[in-house]
């Protein structure tokens, strides 16, 4: 779905889109449903999907004759989650459409990183991964890159053939990877260009909704910088350079802090420092991701006539897809229900309260 200037210039329609979203949100799964599915079998999950809002997409998979039950489930979940978000975006106009497009473009960020990390093509499986299909660039574009353009140079050329700003941003990251062979620098270029482009789009407006989207981008940058800080602490990497534009983690603190208390103590994430004590690096980062998700989810009941509702709903819809996919994979690996629960974000699970 390409960001249309016609739709972007129209009047915003938050009230209408939010009313639709709040009705649709009643169908999002509750905690008990995830726990029940995690304790069942893949066949139980299949029966559930057939009767759920993912049913039409699952029937498509059955008609296509997919051999693997897990593959059918994962594809149906990916497509069904995209339906929820894209159908919502197609209802939006003006500022509402622009800001929803930023949320959808998180799919491009995920998909681009998957492609960069799978370059060169010798690292790839034959079949494409389960893309974040709500992305602005089409899944056929990502499939084409995966199947036919395995090298960074080929990927860069293919991206620049596409008449799409998001594709050109990914193409520049591919070019960095081709010239340097350094995945860290390529991912850095990708996120830098992506975030700068969206700051430009959202910065054309000056109101409470644009400030909320600036906060969203800033908190996302905090998450990326936190990941870099963890890596620096582990590898003692002297070349570390943090992204500008973070919401609450200041660059000078990131550069000087030697422990979590020093890093988070004076930030909006300060509640988290004590919760991380004794945790592994992966557990710490996953918890930070959860705090970012909880902040988004908490916005759902904030400003009912602005972007908050859509940020909260979108986060929950994407997390529902991730939870169900993780449950499917966990069951296929014969993990216990308790082990699966450790890997999913459950509604009402608690966690620290984030600043508004």
List the SSEs and their pairings.
Blueprint: H1 5-9, H2 14-24, H3 31-38, H4 42-50, H5 55-63, H6 69-89, H7 94-104, H8 106-117, H9 139-148, H10 152-161, H11 165-180, H12 183-202, H13 208-235, H14 251-256, H15 260-264, H16 281-298, H17 308-332, H18 337-341
Description of the structure:
The chain has 356 residues and is mostly helical. Among the domains are: 14-91 and 317-356, Orthogonal Bundle (Topoisomerase I, Chain A, domain 4); 98-204, V-type ATP synthase subunit C fold. Helices cover 64% and strands 0% of the residues. It is built from 18 helices and no strands. α4 (42-50) runs parallel beside α6, α6 (69-89) runs antiparallel to α17 and α11 runs antiparallel to α12 (183-202). The longest helix has 28 residues, at 208-235. It is globular, with a radius of gyration of 20 Å. Mean pLDDT is 89; it is low at 350-356.
CATH class of the domain at 14-91 and 317-356: Mainly Alpha
CATH topology of the domain at 14-91 and 317-356, by name, is: Topoisomerase I, Chain A, domain 4
Main structural class: mainly alpha
Helix and strand succession?
A: HHHHHHHHHHHHHHHHHH
CATH-derived architecture of the domain at 14-91 and 317-356: Orthogonal Bundle
- Catalogue the unreliable spans: 350-356
Number of helices: 18
Mind describing the biggest β-sheet? none
Terminal-residue CA separation:
31 Å
> Which range does the strand content fall in?
under 5%
Radius of gyration: 20 Å
């Amino acid at each position: 779905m390409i960001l249309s200037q016609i739709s972007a210039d129209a009047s915003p329609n938050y009230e209408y889109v939010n009313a639709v979203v709040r009705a649709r949100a009643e169908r999002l799964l509750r905690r008990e449903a995830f726990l029940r599915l995690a304790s069942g079998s893949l066949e139980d999950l299949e029966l559930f999907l057939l009767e759920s809002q993912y049913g039409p997409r699952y029937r498509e998979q059955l008609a296509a004759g997919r051999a693997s039950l897990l593959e059918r489930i994962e594809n149906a979940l990916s497509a069904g989650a995209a339906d929820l978000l894209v159908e919502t975006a197609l209802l939006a106009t003006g500022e509402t459409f622009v800001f929803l497009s930023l949320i959808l473009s998180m799919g491009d960020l995920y998909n681009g990183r998957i492609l960069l990390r799978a370059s060169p093509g010798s690292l790839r499986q034959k079949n494409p991964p389960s893309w974040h299909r709500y992305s602005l660039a089409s899944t056929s574009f990502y499939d084409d890159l995966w199947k036919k353009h395995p090298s960074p140079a080929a990927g860069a050329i293919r991206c620049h053939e596409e008449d799409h700003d998001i594709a050109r941003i990914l193409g520049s990251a591919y070019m960095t990877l081709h010239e340097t062979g350094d995945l860290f620098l390529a991912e850095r270029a990708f996120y830098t260009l992506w975030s700068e482009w969206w700051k430009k789009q959202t910065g054309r407006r000056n109101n409470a909704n644009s400030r909320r989207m600036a906060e969203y981008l800033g908190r996302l940058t905090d998450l990326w910088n936190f990941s870099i800080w963890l890596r620096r602490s582990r590898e003692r990497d002297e070349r570390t350079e943090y992204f500008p534009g973070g919401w609450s983690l200041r660059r000078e603190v990131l550069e000087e802090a030697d422990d979590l208390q020093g890093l988070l103590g004076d930030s909006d994430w300060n509640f988290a420092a004590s919760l991380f004590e004794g945790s592994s690096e992966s557990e710490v980062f996953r918890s930070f991701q959860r705090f970012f998700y909880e902040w988004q989810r908490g916005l759902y009941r904030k400003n009912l006539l602005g972007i908050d509702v859509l940020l909260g709903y979108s986060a929950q819809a994407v997390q529902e897809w991730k939870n169900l996919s993780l449950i499917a994979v966990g069951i296929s690996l014969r993990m216990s229900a308790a082990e699966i629960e450790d890997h999913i974000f459950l509604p009402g699970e608690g966690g620290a309260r984030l600043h508004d």
